[in-house]
Specification:
The chain is built from 13 helices and 15 strands. It is an alpha/beta fold and about 350 residues long.
Length: about 350
């Protein structure tokens, strides 16, 4: 098991222009207004009509957190479906598909917003993720392979950086995965994961019980890009991992909402959570980067306190630009760990640059 565990939140992928949870719906709305989601116009319309209905509910202030936050929206949509509280959306064509439409809005928004730099015809990872991948690769190369990365992000920005740096990694979506590779544990699924059980007859074509297929992440050149992998001028590209994954393997992109209610969570995602729990129980150093631990992210708020082992932890750092804004969220962990807990007021880019600098001088 890993001695060092890194936990990445949405703040890490901000370096690739992926919006954080608090900004996500506004970014999605701009995509809708700009007609950049023509293939999924019905999904965008359904989600924003539902949001308008929820904002009109007299009891919305009792939620205790902003309905503009993506995690809160998932839970609110689930509750609204159970209670039939959206008066304008009780038809058979709306409420049953609301969560599915929200998932498609997330996929499309990430694909439209995430930027990958292009240099001399090669599609590169962001500088921050490239530095992080180089840091991880350097540690592994000198024999320190007791590392794991846990991320709550759906995007493939880190995956692409690791592939580009030649760092082997494993998602652990199956019960038994190859050892000796960096665990990249994507707790809420990934754009390049496809649930093939949701394609007609596909389960019968597979002799193993696993229903998740992870499409390969490979370094790319502009010349090799599919026309749908859109260049942005001469110095950037957008890589629609989710769209192309479901075309390569018929099924549904597997992203998991941050709420406990939707018990339809695919069984095989539990192997990711189980591996993450094992890594955290043995962890001596935990570095949380770009993750605010919000009250609305219900599954994580239960998960972390249940699996962390305070007697094993030597250091627990939370790296965010403005720690004062999220101190209440980590209060119980800070009280438990005492002086082993610290805040680092830094962005992901700054944290990984420092990590790489220290590592290269060892």
């Amino acid at each position: 098991m890993a001695r060092s565990v890194f936990i990445l939140g949405a703040g890490a992928s901000r370096s690739c222009n992926v919006p954080v949870m608090g900004d996500f719906l506004e970014s999605a709305h701009q995509i809708k207004l700009g007609k950049r989601a023509a293939h999924y116009e019905q999904d965008f319309d359904r989600v924003f009509r539902a949001l308008r209905e929820i904002r009109k509910l007299p009891g919305k202030e009792l939620l205790g957190y902003s309905i503009e936050n993506l995690e809160a929206v998932f839970s609110a949509f689930d509750a609204a479906y159970i209670c039939h509280q959206l008066s304008d959306m009780n038809g058979a064509d709306d409420l049953p598909f609301l969560a599915q439409s929200l998932e498609q809005v997330i996929i499309t928004t990430i694909e439209e917003m995430a930027d990958f730099p292009v240099v001399n015809g090669q599609v590169l990872p962001s500088t921050a993720y490239a530095n992080f991948a180089r840091y991880l690769g350097h540690r592994i190369a000198r024999g320190d392979d007791s590392i794991a990365v846990i991320t709550f992000n759906y995007d493939c920005c880190l995956d692409y950086a690791l592939a580009h740096a030649g760092v082997p990694f494993v998602y652990n979506v199956k019960e038994y995965e190859p050892t000796g590779e960096l665990p990249l544990l994507k707790m809420h699924g990934s754009l390049n994961w496809v649930d093939v059980s949701k394609s007609g007859g596909s389960q019968q074509r597979h002799v193993t019980p696993e229903s998740i297929f992870c499409t390969d992440i490979k370094p790319l050149s502009v010349a090799a890009l599919d026309p749908r992998w859109t260049p942005i001028g001469a110095d950037a590209a957008k890589l629609p991992f989710g769209t192309l994954a479901t075309e390569e393997v018929p099924g549904t992109t597997l992203i998991v909402p941050p709420t406990w209610y939707r018990g339809a969570r695919p069984e095989r995602i539990w192997h990711v959570w189980t591996r993450a729990a094992d890594e955290l129980r043995e962890a001596e150093e935990v570095s949380v980067i770009g993750f605010s631990f919000p009250p609305s992210d219900q599954d994580v708020r239960y998960f972390l306190p249940l699996v962390l082992n305070p007697t094993a932890i030597k250091s627990f750092s939370v790296c965010v630009p403005h720690p004062c804004e999220i101190k209440d969220n980590y209060e119980h962990i800070e009280k438990c760990l005492g002086d082993r807990f610290k805040y680092v007021p830094s962005r992901f880019e700054e944290v990984v640059e420092e990590l790489l600098s220290v590592e290269l001088h060892k």
